From TrEMBL:
Transmembrane segments: none
EC class: hydrolase
A GO term, aspect molecular function: hydrolase activity
Top-level taxonomy: Bacteria, Pseudomonadati, Pseudomonadota, Gammaproteobacteria, Alteromonadales
Name used for this protein in its record: Class GN sortase
InterPro entries, A to Z: Sortase, Sortase_D_1, Sortase_dom-sf, Sortase_proteobact_type
The enzyme's E.C. designation: 3.4.22.-
Amino acid sequence: MTHIKFIPVTDLSKISCNASEPIRAEMKKIDKQQKQDPKSAIKFLKVMSALIALACIGSASYIHIKAYTAQYLLSQAWQQSSADNLEKPWPWFDSNPVAKIHFPTLGNEQIVLAGDSGQALAFGPGLSHLSVKPGEEGTLVISGHRDTHFSHLQYLNPTEEVVLESISGERHLYKINKISIVNVNKDDITQTDFERLLLVTCFPFDSDVADTPLRYVIEALPVAITEPTTLIAKQGHVPVKKYGKNMALTF
């Protein structure tokens, strides 16, 4: 590998662990938009009406329902988007779909949003604005919450495939090469001189602690340069102590 100056791509500490933080701000936007322009809010409110009734059950249920209901609206926006016309799932949303990520072995797919702000991550995985484009040399970073859209990352293992579909319809195939646990107090994600996809979420998955410094990082490489590595992903129940030692990012 040639020697290059590594440029920080993502500050891992900015990736929040739970999806509840932007909820109140987003609901205020909904109320304001409905008062100013009732017609533009109809599409969103039809889908979300059941969610409001269920909110009284508890904030945890509300967050999950909101997250997956939003994916339905994002899927509609995805179908209507093109490289020249990026549709928003609802008019006052501050992001838009930019990719779709598929996990074939899990039968799971998610719409990926532009940016990894707290608001974006409340509704779906987010692509860091400092990421390169699929197919280019460098690092793509997609983040998601461990308690909603990226909860399934714990069941992925090395050699499994990940498919990233761009808004223009191009499909890029990656194979998981490495799974690491990193500490936000010690490590950043840095740019590379080769193509790779990083999937990032908080760790451990089964914890209620919101300010954990640990991040679960899956590295996937284009199939042509993928190499076998050690299997450490969760299968059934694996004691957390198996991940006890923090591992620094390596390139």
